Amino acid sequence: MSNIVNLDITMYGIAEVLMWCHDRNKGRIGGVDTPGFKKMQALLAEKPQSGDYFTLDQFWKKKSHVAAHRGRSRHHRPLLVRHPEPGQ
Length: 88
Prior knowledge:
This protein is of the alpha+beta class. It has helices at 11-23, 35-45, 53-61; strands spanning 4-10, 63-69, 79-82. It is globular.
């Protein structure tokens, strides 16, 4: 059995993960400095600066593929993020 699980998550979901694991955590949970978290931060940095509702709505609904390590512990598990395949 593979230790990696592939998930589809929206940009809104990525924002929630970062808010609870990174921003509100204030360093109490390790592993938030992994390349996966840095990649999620980079994906959110692509948020459109316009106040156009349609553009922002499309951004928050955009999905990304996330590969996460399966395990009993939810902590210290790096997340690997990649952009969706064209045509999906």
